[in-house]
C-alpha cells in the first residue's frame, strides 16, 4: 500500500527541514539550540502520550509511577546545578513560567516595571503579551543607551514613585547583566518582589559565566530550557522563597496548564547532567565565540552598537543594518545564503517598526554546541559581509556555507546514546 499523497508530502517536508537545518545551515538565532543525541532519544518516548495533573506522587491520574520519579529527579538535579532550594519544572514554556509568577504577584489593574521593550524585554513582559492578557499595565524602566542597560538611578526613583506590584529584569536582547542587586534592593524597599527572566542566559549561569540572580537579590527566576540551556522546549521556575514557590505551584496547575508534556522531563534531566559535566567549558566557549564573532563583524564593516562596551558579555549581540536595507531585508538575504538570523528592534526603533526594524540579532549557542570556535565564527562574519555589504548573490555564498557546515555536524558538550541503551531508548528518526 502506498502512502497517501498528503502524508508523503509531509514526510518530504520534514526530511527537507532536517537536512537543511542540521546539515546545511549555520544557525545564529540566540534563542535556539539543539539537544544531544541522548536527550533526543530520551525525549521521544511513551511519556509523550501520557497525562499527569498535579504534583509528583499527588496526581489525579494513575499510571505515573516512573514519571513521578523522573520529575523528582529533574527537580533535584536543577536544584543542585543552580544552587536553589525550590524548582518548578512543569511550565511548558518560559512564557507560561512568567504567566504563573506574574499572576501570583500581580492583579488586574496593577502596574509592573519592566526593562524597555526596544532594549530587549521579552514580549511576555509587556502589554502586547502575557502582562496584557493578565490585565497588568507595563511601565518601562529608563534605558541608558550608552551602557546598553537599565538606567539604575532613574529606575530606582521610578520604583519608589510608582510602587509597582513587581519588577521584572531580563530580556530577549541581553548582552550585559542587568543590575539585579540595585534593582532588587529598591524593589524590596517598597515591599515588592523582583522577577528575573533568565531564559536566554540559563546555560551561562549553569556554566558560571553569569551570576545566578537569586544570589544577587532576585526573589524568583523564570526561564525556558532550550536556549543557552540546550534542552527540550519548555520552562522552569526557581526560587529560595518557599511560600512563593507554593503559591506559584498552585497557580501552574490548574490555571495555566493541565498536562505538562511529560516527555520533556527525561530530556531535561539528561541536559542538566550534561551541563554538570560540560557546562563550564561550553558556556565559556559560547561567550568567547560571541565576542570573537562580534569583533569580526565590526572588522568586516558592520555596525555593532555595543563595540564601545567590549561587544557583549553573553551569547549574543546585535548589528545595526539600517544602511544595508533594514533588518527584514538583511535577515531574508542571509537566510537565502543558509545563514539563519532574526530581525530585531534596536533601542531607537519605535514599537511599530517590529516588522522591519533597524537590527538583526545573532548568537553563538547552537553552532558552539556543534563545535564551532572563534576562527569559524570569523569565517561566518566574512560570509555575511559577502552577502550584505559586497552584494554577492546569496546562492553563491550558500555553497560556501554548506561546505563550512560539513565540519560541524555532531553535537559536542553532550552525551551520545550508549550502545547498551540503544535497544531500550528510541533513537530520534532523522528521516534522512
The N- to C-terminal Cα distance equals 22 Å
CATH architecture of the largest domain: 3-Layer(aba) Sandwich
Task: Name the strands of the widest sheet in spatial order.
Answer: 4-12-11-10-9-5-6
Q: In the residues, how many domains can be counted?
A: 2
What's the level 1 CATH class of the largest domain?
Alpha Beta
- What portion of residues is helical? 40-55%
> In percent, how much strand structure appears in the residues?
5-15%
On the 0 to 100 scale, the average pLDDT is: 94
What string, H for helix and E for strand, traces the elements in order?
HEHEEHEHEHEEEHEHEHEEHHEHEEEHHH
- How many beta strands in the DSSP annotation? 16
**Unreliable stretches covering 5 or more consecutive residues:** 428-432
Features:
disordered C terminus, 42% helix, Aspartate Aminotransferase, domain 1, alpha/beta, Aspartate Aminotransferase, domain 2, 432 residues, three-stranded antiparallel beta sheet
